[in-house]
Design brief:
alpha/beta, seven-stranded mixed sheet, 227 residues, globular
Length: 227
Amino acid sequence: MLAAGVTAPTLQAKTSSQSLATATPFTEGKYRILALVFDDYETLDLHGPVEMLGHMPNAEIKLVAAKEIIKSYQGPRVVADCLTTDTYDCDLLLIPGGLGTRTLVSDTGMRQWLIKQIACSQNVFTVCTGTALLAMTSVLNGRKATTNKMAFEWVTSLNDNPQWQPRARWVYDGKFLTSSGVSAGTDAALFWVKHLHGEQEARRIETLTEYNWNQDANNDPYAVVHK
């Protein structure tokens, strides 16, 4: 079962027919990370992974949104580098969660953009209920995936075709890395650093940020709490 909806983004931007990806906000030669932001995104879902991924060598991170100024659930605002009226070739598409996903799952314009953007992305990384935005498409069908355990019942109700993992801290299947709630995204981001650059680099960033990395992808301690 897939969710349906009717709302579409309203802000317009220049478009181009150069390729499947119509524009680029990135510097040539960089590891290109495109992070989707929307009103009421969860701050740590975005900024925890951004902190870790941003310390990787040669990484460049850009924000994409349906409008220029986006307000997080906690209140601070961010400025988008580019708009969802275009798609962009990237190495990693990062999708945070938050209360804003509750309305975005009914946004057909966002669904259509995501399907196109996923095709332009080498890998896709969701945090928390960001997985719900993938669940409203068919891209996770048949794949293992997880999400915030407090919202597990809601997210899994959107699409019963993925192989939902109720105890996983994060799951990497195909091109999709999905993580559990909030701080789990930071743990998964360090996993991604290790995947790309090895454990030594992941440990370097863990030490640099004075973070206690939970490395066990199969054991989300909050799965029991929110069972």
